[in-house]
Amino acid sequence: MSDGTNLVSTDTNGAYTLNEPAGNYTLNVSSGGYLTTYQITTVTSSGTSTVNWALTNAYGSQPVPASGMAYTILAWNDLGMHCDQDDYSYFCVLPPFNTLHVQVIRRSDDASLIMSGITVSYTFPKKTNSTLHTNFWTYAAQYGWNVPPNIGITGTPLAGNMAPDANNLSWVATGIPITPYDDDGTWDPYGTAAITVKDGSGNVLQTANVVAPVSTEMMCSNCHGTTNPQLDILQKHDAYNGTTLAADQANGIVHACSECHSDNALGAPGQAGVESLSLAMHNFHKDKMTYTSAAANTTPDCYNCHPGAKTQCLRGIMSRAGKSCHDCHGDMYGMTNSILSGRQPWLQEPKCGNCHDAVHQENTNTLYRNSVLQDAPEGDMDNKLYCEACHNSTHAELTTANPADPTIPQKFQGDNYWIWNCSVCHTGTKSGSMHRQGGGD
Ligand code: HEC
Ligand code: HEC
Ligand code: HEC
Ligand code: HEC
Ligand code: HEC
Ligand code: HEC
Ligand code: HEC
Predict the structure, then answer these.
(1) pLDDT confidence bin for 441, thresholds 50/70/90
(2) Which of 22-36, 179-193, 244-258, 275-289 is predicted least confidently?
(3) What Rg do the C-alpha atoms of the chain give, in angstroms?
(4) Shortest CA distance to 380 belongs to which of 19, 130, 108?
(5) What tens digit of pLDDT does each residue of 370-425 get?
(6) 401 C-alpha to center of ligand 6: Å?
(7) Is the bond preceding 308 in cis, omega lying within 30 degrees of 0?
(8) Can you give the pLDDT at residue 440?
(9) Distance 373 CA to ligand 3 centre (A)
(10) Of the candidates 95, 130, 82, which has an alpha carbon nearest to the alpha carbon of residue 256?
(11) Among 54, 92, 126, 191, whose Cα sits 20 to 30 Å from the Cα of 322?
């Protein structure tokens, strides 16, 4: 272990101490059989900062499983988790909505991304009828979405063809209305989408399975009572803000929170002068996180409303290294203050580059999920592959704790890691660092 100046070895228990003056340090760690890695840490004067490690085994040198394959599919969900509701008869926070991306690569010495002349389709073999598990479509029109049953708010069905995205780099299906339940009632927030790529004549070129995470585990009931938490929420809202949400509901009129509170997740402008939904929720609840013992016992506290103690949406490599919501987003006060100081909810989020170096950061002013590799081994490969194509979604970055996540590397690379093997896409012998240092060819 070293900070570039001082070198220490861990003791038999794996413990180590470095004594440094106050300042910012990059700690490098190496150990036989593991990837060499680093973390950035701050030492305050006469303070102690603890840096824990979760080392990743060095990559295998195994060949890719199907060395003769002609096409590779990289597929992922845009967010590590989507939230929806079982019951929409009182209000709507978020509708059923899931987004899948697929990049198709023709494997050759050069490798090429295929954006025309093929059909890319998706189905959910175990989730073919969402109306079995949510009453969303009974109320959808009242919430402003005039869509028939099993069609999402952007017109996307439960199975169909994908279309080129705005960057013309991936195939996308936006807003697929799946629920966490299979048709037979099994609760599976990590359901599988089956992707099929066909040529113009209908011949199957390649297939793959990918997870589409969605959960209804918003535990408002931890504090709003288990009898009818939704009614309690409307009543409290009316009592504090002079609205008539409970009376309206009794008269058959339901409201989406985003009618009044702006919500960038839905592109909803809200009403002028009313706080954004994210600010209203985190700000109001910031001093109420120990309101009941059920809430106080929920760790991290964010799992009181984000899924959740059962769902465990946070499962990526950072959580395996001991990082939790607060380390990246701040606590309830941090969430609130960042918005009060100008952060736009949903559009400005934490960055990989906050902790990793400049070679491994997002594109300028771009979210992780929209960023592409710009420092590839060779200039021709730049600006083609999404970060998520190799690393998977935020909160589920490979290698993850959930076996549902690594289906793509398992099929095309033969392990559970992020995509590291050049042979996943190239036939010839290629070598080099996937993120080249310092630019240049
Ligand atoms: C709060 C700081 C933080 C943020 C933000 C962060 N990481 Fe990490 N990352 C870490 C730590 C800590 C490790 C684990 C180091 C160890 O213990 O091995 C790690 C490890 C990794 C690894 C494994 C490689 C290695 O050197 O161990 C990958 C890949 C990775 N992160 C990708 C990402 C991506 C992609 C993002 C953005 C979506 C991101 N990280 C954001 C702190 C962070
Ligand atoms: C950790 C406890 C806790 C959790 C979890 C929780 N709340 Fe609350 N919430 C409260 C408390 C306490 C109040 C205030 C109750 C009172 O004053 O009687 C409140 C009040 C509210 C209000 C009224 C605030 C106002 O000024 O209009 C709304 C709306 C609300 N909660 C929505 C929700 C929703 C939606 C969820 C789930 C996504 C949720 N809450 C989860 C504790 C919680
Ligand atoms: C008819 C308009 C309307 C609807 C619908 C509505 N709200 Fe509000 N809400 C308001 C107004 C107005 C306020 C008070 C002004 C403000 O907070 O900006 C408020 C305040 C709040 C607050 C307290 C904010 C604070 O810091 O004190 C919370 C929490 C909240 N709303 C959550 C919700 C949730 C959750 C929903 C959906 C279940 C919802 N609201 C639906 C209009 C609405
Ligand atoms: C009382 C319920 C509640 C708690 C507790 C809560 N959230 Fe949220 N959070 C919400 C709701 C509801 C939304 C969705 C708002 C929307 O649709 O815009 C949300 C949205 C978000 C977003 C996306 C919007 C943005 O501001 O960028 C982030 C990030 C987030 N929460 C992080 C956290 C973190 C971190 C914690 C724990 C420190 C936490 N939340 C705790 C209810 C909660
Ligand atoms: C290692 C850092 C890290 C940790 C830990 C982390 N997040 Fe995030 N989170 C991010 C990043 C990065 C984004 C932005 C993703 C993007 O740019 O597309 C994000 C985005 C979000 C969003 C917006 C929707 C989305 O997925 O993009 C929500 C909500 C959220 N986080 C909640 C949480 C909650 C709740 C926890 C803890 C259970 C948590 N996060 C833990 C880094 C983290
Ligand atoms: C073609 C696959 C691929 C793409 C696309 C990709 N990465 Fe990586 N990434 C890798 C590999 C392989 C490694 C490990 C070797 C290295 O660090 O260069 C890695 C390592 C990382 C790490 C861990 C660095 C550390 O501390 O050890 C982070 C963070 C990261 N990438 C972020 C990103 C971001 C952000 C993007 C998009 C701008 C991205 N990656 C795009 C394959 C990829
Ligand atoms: C996920 C798929 C993927 C992986 C993995 C990948 N590449 Fe590429 N590579 C591409 C694509 C796509 C192009 C762009 C070809 C074009 O359109 O010009 C490319 C182009 C190249 C080129 C320029 C074309 C040529 O043959 O001279 C080189 C060199 C290259 N990659 C090297 C590497 C190396 C080295 C690795 C492993 C560290 C790697 N690639 C891993 C997809 C990939």
Answers:
(1) very low
(2) 22-36
(3) 24
(4) 108
(5) 999 999 999 999 999 999 999 999 999 999 999 999 999 999 999 999 999 999 99
(6) 19
(7) yes
(8) 42
(9) 40
(10) 95
(11) 191
Which ligand lies nearest the alpha carbon of 39?
1
Ligand 4 shell residues, CB under 6 Å:
93-94, 263, 265, 277-278, 281-282, 285, 301-302, 304-306, 325-326, 329, 331-332, 335, 345-346, 349
pLDDT at 61 over 90: no
Judge contact between 24 and 41, C-beta under 8 A.
yes
Ligand nearest to the CA of 334: 4
Q: Does any ligand 2 atom lie closer than 6 A to the CB of residue 237?
A: yes
The CA-based angle 345-351-355, given to 5 degrees, is 145
Site of tokens 């009313």: 274
**Where does the pLDDT of residue 90 fall: very low under 50, low under 70, confident under 90, or very high at 90 and above?**
very high
Would you say how long the chain is, in residues? 441
Burial class (CB in 10 A: 0-12, 13-18, 19+), 390: buried
**Which residues, at least 6 apart from 260, have a Cβ–Cβ distance to it below 8 Å?**
270, 271, 274
List phi, psi (to 5°) of 401.
-85, -5
Tokens of 435: 């993120």
Buried b / exposed e over 217-230, threshold 16 CB at 10 Å, is: bbbebbbbeeeebb
**Nearest-5° angle of CA 273, CA 274, CA 275?**
115
Find where tokens 């413990």 sit: 15
Closest ligand 6 atom, CA of 433?
A: 18
Per-residue pLDDT, 3: 67
Asked if 72 and 110 touch (Cβ cutoff 8 Å), the reply is no
Q: Which residue has the tokens 């440094």?
A: 20
Nearest to 309 by CA among 319, 294, 327, 323: 294
Whether residue 93 contacts residue 83, with contact meaning beta carbons closer than 8 Å, is answered with: yes
Tokens of 375: 């420092």
- Evaluate whether 56 touches 37 at the Cβ level (below 8 Å): yes
Query: Ligand 7 — pocket residues by CB below 6 A?
Result: 74, 105, 109-113, 377-378, 380-381, 384-385, 419, 422, 424-426, 430-432, 434
Q: Is the Cβ atom of 418 under 6 angstroms away from ligand 1?
A: yes
CA of 331 to the centre of ligand 3 (A): 21
**Contact (Cβ atoms closer than 8 angstroms) between residue 43 and residue 22:** yes
Which ligand has an atom closest to residue 275 CA?
Answer: 3
